[in-house]
Amino acid sequence: MQRRYVTTDVFTDRLFGGNPLAVVLDADGLTDTQMQSIAREFNYSETTFVLPPRNAAHSAQVRIYTPRVEVPFAGHPNVGTAFVLAHERQRQGLPDAGSFVFEEHAGLVPVTLLREQAAGAAGGRASGAVIGAELRAPEALSRRSVTSPESAAACLSLPVSAIATNRHAPQVVSVGLPFLVVELNSRDALRCARAHVAAHEALLPLDGADCVFTYVREAPAAADSTIVLHARMFAPLDGVPEDPATGSATAATIALLAALEGSARGEQHWRIHQGVDMGRPSLLMGRTVPGREGATAVYVGGRCVAVFAGSLAI
After folding, report:
1. Which of 62, 205, 209, 280 is a plausible cystine mate for 244, CB 3.0–4.6 Å?
2. Does residue 230 surpass a pLDDT of 90?
3. Host domain of residue 49
């Protein structure tokens, strides 16, 4: 049986930038083993498989695989899958969808499509061209184990003096998929970071995290309230030496930082640059919106570019 697939570069507006994603359409009937083998064959950081929803009120069931394991939730697979499905609907002559709700192991993931703005349109009216998507994280922030600056530095092949702890210690956090999040004290330190596999194996997995997301916060610009981070993510234990753009880790990190700063600041906007030091520059846009009883809704989105389309003979 022939099964179509489409690949897209996510969190970029340029071909061969961002984070590549393979989306296998009409995946119903594939076994877990087949899905894992296909993901290993693509060898992207993630591959998604689109199946019919269990609940007809939802858009699709989406399963997400790294080259080594299935994961319950991830950022760029949701953004890229929504982008691909929107264009598939257009190709098939189906009505436009403004949003999707994906069923995933971590829960329901709402994804809103982003559209090109028509030049000169009153009120910023969209032209209708889908250019990307924005997801809402499926879980509230979970703060888990803390580790030492020494252990975090070893994972990143850095001296312990490069680790910043004034905001938070290196800590496992999650809004659907856990990561060890580590703040660094300079952009130079981030540029020099390298995954030390033996140190990863000695420390991880830790409270479900087997990846390290590290970032540095840019000094705020007086005229811009958007908070800017520069980030890298290393997952050698998952067969991903470095990830160009990691929406789930970004979501967890900005949720943590928003929680540390308190809800009094209201809705905050975030711009995250990732992949620059590995030659696949990516741009992720985030929002944290305080809600009732201290809960914060976390959104991450960005643009996408279609790349390849083909079929698998399974």
Report:
1. 280
2. yes
3. 2-138+303-313
Alpha-carbon dihedral 133, 136, 141, 142, rounded to 10 degrees: -80
Tally of CB atoms within 10 A around 90: 15
Which listed residue (46, 103, 104, 134) is catalytic? 46
What are the beta bridge partners of residue 6? 23, 309
| Contact partners, residue 219, CB within 8 Å, separation at least 6 | none
Question: Domain check: are 35 and 107 in the same one?
Answer: yes
**How many CB atoms are located within 10 Å of the residue 190 CB?**
22
Rounded Cα gap, residues 312 and 314, in angstroms = 6
In angstroms, the Cα distances linking 271 to 52, 84, 181, 282 are: 34, 23, 17, 10
**Average pLDDT score over residue span 31-48:** 97
pLDDT digits (tens, 9 = 90+) for 256-270: 999 998 866 789 999
How would residue 293 be classed by pLDDT, with cut points 50, 70 and 90?
Answer: low
| Residue 104 bears catalytic tag | no
**9 touches 16 (CB < 8 A):** yes
- Say whether both 246 and 274 belong to one domain: yes
